[in-house]
Q: What sequence folds into this?
DNA sequence: TTGTACGCGTTATCAA
DNA sequence: TTGATAACGCGTACAA
């Protein structure tokens, strides 16, 4: 139960604790032979360096933070997995902070966490990444941080983004290519910037195809399946019923499919349905969902990599774009003639 | 950027740092008046104590660990949320550790994490909680820990469990009560103890109803929607097609519904489908899924509470049972006559 | 290439 | 009820 310390290792290897410290931190100025002896001693004792001691003594804690607030389980899980994987590659720990509360309080909570834990930097996920006050507070604090999918382009802070607008446009073009002309849209939560961008992509594709983008059927949803279901009912009741509905995320698309079932409208023969995000759900609903793959894991992995660079003083580009991907599954088909 | 320390607070409050420390740790032997002055000084400076310093100096780190390995996104999210909430109530931090690798290596990883981070205790989730070698290693290490849903009854280690067997039996009885006699079962992953318990509950209910439990239609699944779909196809092809199918979890139940759609079997009029767990999915598929609510958030919350007691030297019961709940939704109905 | 002395910010010990 | 001082286990600065 009594902790093994750097002193034990030093004694066993016959060197000073400073040399052990050098080996621990992969500093170059250690003779290969000495390094080997120290390594062996560490292994023999099953030595594990104390993170608190390192945090306290050094100017780095070897810990990064990940903050999120209230998104979906799938999103959080994917983000965490990507960030954890990247941290592991570099021998760092990830501290996860779930935020509650409103603006001011939230910022205080995050700054308190930073101060208490000594984290070296922060990965900020949406919707927190769109909070310009938070961004400003972090900047003032002088803490390295990387934003995932911020509003606009992160206001100069390093950000990892996907092109929601272009992806939505591509999906709409896919539907147009299948012969659809009345393509309805279920918009996502108004508070999320991605909602606006996706809607813009849909409109842009319609306009480019010579359709009246302003008059196109559009209903408001809130990123949940029930809201998608209700929006779909409103769309399906219209005299000029759409032959395709594009929902701003997969949950809402699942709601659209549910509504179609309820109205006796066959998917995809009478109605094509498309989603966005490519969550687990897309492969589970029936028919399986055509959707846009958002590489959440990859985005988190990259954001964490950028943060590691930043902490080490390496310059990083202001915006890193990640690609997206159309997943064509069973919920879309050629428009009935 | 320069950190505020206990010295600053002590100076401002006109006391020694030890007194500030006492206030910080809610020790009783401080005059109310002194305590107030110290509190005010802390607030005025927006003082945040250094967790690494406390971990290093004290015999407690005020940090608990949560270890998981590879379960579903929804499960992880619910467990984390419950544990984080409980930690927050007691002013503790939660360190989350995702494990990879096989038995030996996994144990080493967890013990290394414990040694490095100085966590005061560990919440162990399934399937790790069923690893008796891990349990033994933690016991030897002398670290407080609580198991969630272990195999058997946790081998004497404190555990939080739900009665999978009784719940599955109740669900089967519900189906029997709806007039079903041919009730098929899709078993979950053979590696999970809950799979066996749920199957036992199903069989017990059939036997109690005077049916031949041994000959009842049963197919193997692996906790995924595709495996549920395939199992359902096999069940639906039988000459004595079941009028109800009970799947060992919601994902597989979603697969069953999908298969029914594919075979042109109407749910619930021609086939009732029941699931287990009450994940998000249950409210999203069509028809919405009748299922057993497993209180994952609550289990994690309680397990963390027990762990906090344990760390403080308070005795806790060896097993804490949590209740379950039948959620009757749209996927089950009276058997066709 | 290696080692010595000190400090990081807190808790523990013991004395007042 | 309060305080002085020594740990805790490591990195940093500087010297050898």
A:
């Amino acid at each position: 139960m009594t902790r093994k310390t750097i002193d034990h290792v030093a004694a066993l290897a016959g060197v000073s604790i400073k040399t052990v410290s050098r080996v621990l931190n992969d500093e170059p100025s250690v003779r290969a032979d000495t390094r080997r002896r120290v390594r062996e001693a560490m292994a023999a004792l099953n030595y594990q360096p104390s993170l608190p001691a390192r945090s306290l003594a050094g100017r780095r804690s070897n810990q990064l933070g990940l903050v999120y607030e209230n998104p979906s389980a799938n999103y959080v899980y994917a983000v965490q997995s990507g960030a954890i994987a990247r941290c592991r590659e570099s021998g760092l720990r990830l501290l996860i902070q779930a935020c509650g509360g409103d603006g001011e309080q939230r910022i205080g909570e995050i700054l308190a966490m930073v101060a208490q834990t000594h984290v070296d930097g922060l990965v900020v996920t949406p919707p927190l990444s769109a909070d310009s006050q938070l961004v400003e507070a972090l900047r003032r604090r002088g803490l390295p941080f990387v934003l995932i999918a911020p509003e606009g382009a992160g206001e100069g802070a390093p950000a990892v983004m996907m092109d929601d607008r272009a992806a939505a446009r591509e999906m709409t073009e896919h539907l147009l290519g299948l012969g659809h002309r009345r393509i309805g849209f279920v918009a996502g939560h108004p508070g999320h910037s991605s909602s606006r961008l996706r809607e813009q992509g849909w409109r842009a594709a319609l306009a480019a195809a010579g359709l009246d983008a302003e008059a196109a059927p559009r209903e408001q949803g809130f990123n949940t399946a029930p809201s998608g279901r209700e929006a779909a009912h409103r769309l399906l009741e219209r005299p000029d019923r759409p032959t395709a509905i594009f929902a701003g995320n997969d949950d809402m698309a699942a709601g659209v499919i549910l509504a179609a079932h309820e109205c006796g409208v066959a998917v995809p023969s009478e109605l094509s349905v498309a989603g966005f995000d490519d969550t687990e759900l897309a492969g589970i609903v029936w028919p399986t969902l055509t959707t846009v793959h958002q590489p959440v894991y990859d985005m988190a992995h990259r954001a964490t990599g950028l943060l590691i660079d930043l902490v080490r003083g390496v310059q990083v580009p202001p915006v890193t774009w990640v690609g997206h991907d159309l997943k064509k599954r069973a919920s879309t088909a050629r428009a009935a003639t």
Notes: Residues 15-19, 22, 29-31, 34, 53, 55-58 of chain B lie near DNA strand D (CB under 10 Å from a C1').
